Amino acid sequence: MLGTFSALEVSASGLAAERIRMNTIASNLANARTTKTEAGGPYKRIDPLFESKLLDSQGIESQAGRAVSSVHVARIVTDERPGQMVYDPGHPDANAQGYVEYPNVNVVEEMVNMISASRAYEAGVSAIDSIKQMATSALRIGR
Amino acid sequence: MAIGPIEGNLPLMQPKGTTDADFVARLKETQTPGQTQGVSFEDVIGQAILNTNQRIHAATEAGQAFAAGKTDDIHGTMLAMSEADISLRFVGNVKNKVVDAFYELWRMSI
User: Fold this and answer.
1) For residue A31, which phi and psi values (nearest 5 degrees)?
2) CA of A1: how far to CAs of A42, A61, B36, in Å?
3) Is A25 helix (H, G, I), strand (E, B) or coil?
4) How many angstroms separate the Cα of B84 from the Cα of each of A105, A108, B91, B102, B106?
5) A-side interface with B, Cβ within 8 Å?
6) What ipTM does the predicted assembly reach?
7) B93 vs A128: CB contact, 8 Å cut-off?
């Protein structure tokens, strides 16, 4: 059934997705200068891959009911762009030529993504507020 | 949790050209909507109350899990509580309407 609560479900999935995105951004920012990882080599930037998922459309006959989708994170992808090479022979992680590979994290880019994630989360919360407002208005009809 | 419109005409108005016996027979038909129309009002409101109860339970569990530190899903907890709140107010409004209707009939002078 496509109703108030399915709209809330869709918005909630968006909030959860943005929260995961915020986690990856925090991870990228925290590791912006990490040159050593468990897998070896410098830290690699991560990004969530969003995927839409149709709502359980059992018993829905309308076109809208079959099109409405929630979002979920399919997987976390690793950015394989090369990192910045800095000449620093004294560094413990320097290679034979004396270069250290720093993570491929661009702090400015992460800040932009952070603003985008934060605004998207706010938009989701606004949508939830509106849905609740509509439900409350509908309840006023009977009075 | 949809409460659909009551289908079918209510033959309470006696049309011209029918006898009293016809009218009484049709009146009796409408007095048992559960048998003639499939779903009774009692079933519908019962289902709505059941759904609301489930939402309240879900909200309580979410609140307890959050308070106990088992989860940090803030918006999930808030949404569970909002859903329970809206459901409960909806069922409460329906209940008020039914009780109003009952008193309306109760006050009717015959």
Assistant:
1) -105, 25
2) 49, 9, 25
3) helix
4) 43, 42, 11, 27, 32
5) 1, 3-5, 8, 12, 15-16, 19, 125, 128, 132, 135-136, 139, 142-143
6) 0.73
7) no
Q: How do the pLDDT tens digits run along chain A, 143 residues long? A: 567 788 899 999 999 999 999 999 999 999 999 998 988 889 999 999 999 988 865 655 566 666 788 999 999 999 999 988 999 999 998 889 999 999 999 999 999 999 999 999 999 999 999 999 999 999 888 77
Strand residues in A65-137 grouped as ranges (E): 69-78, 85-87, 99-101
Contact A114, A25 (CB under 8 A): yes
Contacts of B1 in chain A (CB under 8 A): 1, 3
Supply φ then ψ for residue B99, to 5 degrees.
Answer: -65, -40
Q: B98 to chain A nearest CA, in Å?
A: 11
Minimal Cα–Cα distance from B22 to chain A, Å? 35
